[in-house]
């Protein structure tokens, strides 16, 4: 089962969150029928978004990550709730590129670097918070590190990885976000930098049997790390017939009348989970009446 683990250093100078997301990334692969480099890119985005969502203090809050790098994958979108459950999609999941090494997928080239990483945080205020930074590498973890440094002014180390099996399924997936808090001095920063270097690629550690807590214990070794929480997370879509009906109403009277005249009926597919919702001509007429009232 996938989970998110949160820890803090004993002196309160470092906070850290880690995720194991094999099932989340595999579910995304199955839904969107992605090839390996697309699976890795979408999986990394989902896990990064899930960790950020779980950090929200608002029960009904959400975080949206949007990556548009100009690469062959097109744009990548992930949305997470405040519990760390995430869903997502990308434009071109059938992209296949040569590997950088026998087990190293070239996610950076697939994503591209000619564009931006955008974070949208909805915490129940009138307007959501929107932060955007230029992409650094397209590898996603480095781009999130840049986002935290530039938009939130928080020194951050981020690691994300998705290891693909020979049958193209997800063998393991996970990541971490470790941040320095006010009061952290250069010694703490240096210690953390050394720990990140010793840890190496996330998937190497996970493939040896480590879980999210073990990841953080290695990163915060010697800091008296305190476990704050362990919560299960999953790939979760909140689409429903009612929500899709509301989306149709929002199209407005003219658009609905045109749809009824031209098509008579319609099938709408959820971008996140590929669920198909069929609406007959009679149902569209009922929705048109609702739209007219609105």
List the defining traits of the structure above:
5-stranded antiparallel sheet, alpha+beta, 36% helix, 294 residues, 33 kDa chaperonin, CBS domain Like, Hsp33 domain, single chain
Query: Which sequence of strands runs across the widest sheet?
Result: 8-9-2-1-10
CATH architecture of the largest domain: 3-Layer(bab) Sandwich
Number of β-strand runs: 12
Binned strand content: 25-35%
Give me the Rg, rounded: 21 Å
Mean pLDDT: 93
* Main sheet properties: 5 strands, antiparallel
Contiguous uncertain segments of 5+ residues = none
Count of helices?
10
Question: Helical content, roughly?
Answer: 25-40%
- Coarse morphology: globular
CATH fold-level assignment of the largest domain:
Hsp33 domain
| Distance separating the two termini | 44 Å
Class of the largest domain, according to the CATH hierarchy?
A: Alpha Beta
H/E element sequence: EEHHEEEHEEHEEHHHEHHEEH
Please provide a brief summary of the model.
This protein folds into two domains: 3-232, Hsp33 domain, CATH 3.55.30.10; 241-293, HSP33 redox switch-like (CBS domain Like). It has 294 residues and is an alpha+beta fold.
Describe the structure.
This protein is an alpha+beta fold. It folds into 2 domains: 3-232, Hsp33 domain, CATH 3.55.30.10; 241-293, CBS domain Like (Alpha-Beta Complex), CATH 3.90.1280.10. The protein contains 10 helices and 12 strands. It has helices at 22-32, 36-53, 107-111, 141-151, 186-199, 202-207, 212-219, 241-250, 253-262, 281-293, and strands spanning 3-8, 14-20, 62-68, 76-81, 86-90, 116-122, 129-134, 156-164, 170-180, 226-232, 266-269, 276-279. The strands form 3 sheets. The chain has a 5-stranded antiparallel beta sheet, with helices on both faces. Strand 11 (266-269) and strand 12 form a beta hairpin. It is globular. It starts with a strand and ends with a helix. 42% of the residues are buried. The model has no long low-confidence stretch (mean pLDDT 93).
């Amino acid at each position: 089962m996938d989970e998110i683990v949160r820890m803090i250093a004993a002196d309160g100078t470092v906070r850290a969150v880690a995720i194991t997301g094999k099932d989340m990334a595999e579910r995304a692969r199955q839904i969107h029928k992605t090839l390996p480099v697309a699976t890795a890119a979408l999986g990394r985005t989902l896990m990064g978004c899930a960790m950020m969502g779980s950090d929200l203090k608002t029960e009904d809050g959400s975080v949206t990550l949007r990556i548009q790098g100009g690469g062959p994958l097109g744009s990548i979108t992930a949305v997470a709730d405040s519990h760390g459950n995430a869903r997502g999609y990308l434009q071109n999941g059938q992209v296949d590129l040569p590997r950088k090494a026998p087990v190293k997928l070239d996610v950076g080239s697939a994503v591209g670097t000619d564009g931006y990483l955008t974070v949208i945080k909805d915490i129940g205020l009138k307007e959501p918070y929107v932060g955007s930074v230029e992409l650094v590498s397209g590898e996603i973890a480095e781009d999130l590190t840049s986002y935290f440094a530039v938009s939130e002014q928080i020194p951050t180390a981020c690691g994300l990885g998705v290891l693909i099996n020979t049958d193209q399924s997800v063998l393991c997936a996970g990541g971490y976000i470790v941040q320095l808090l006010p009061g952290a001095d250069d010694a703490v920063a240096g210690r953390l930098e050394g720990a990140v270097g010793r840890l190496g690629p996330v998937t190497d550690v996970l493939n040896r049997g480590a879980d999210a807590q073990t990841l953080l214990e290695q990163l915060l070794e010697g800091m008296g790390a305190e476990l704050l929480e362990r919560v299960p997370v999953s790939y979760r879509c909140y689409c429903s017939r009612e929500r899709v009906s509301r989306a149709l109403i929002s199209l407005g009277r003219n658009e609905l009348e045109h749809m009824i005249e031209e098509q008579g009926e319609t099938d709408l597919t959820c971008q996140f989970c590929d669920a198909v919702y069929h609406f007959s001509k009679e149902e569209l007429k009922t929705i048109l009446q609702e739209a007219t009232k609105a």
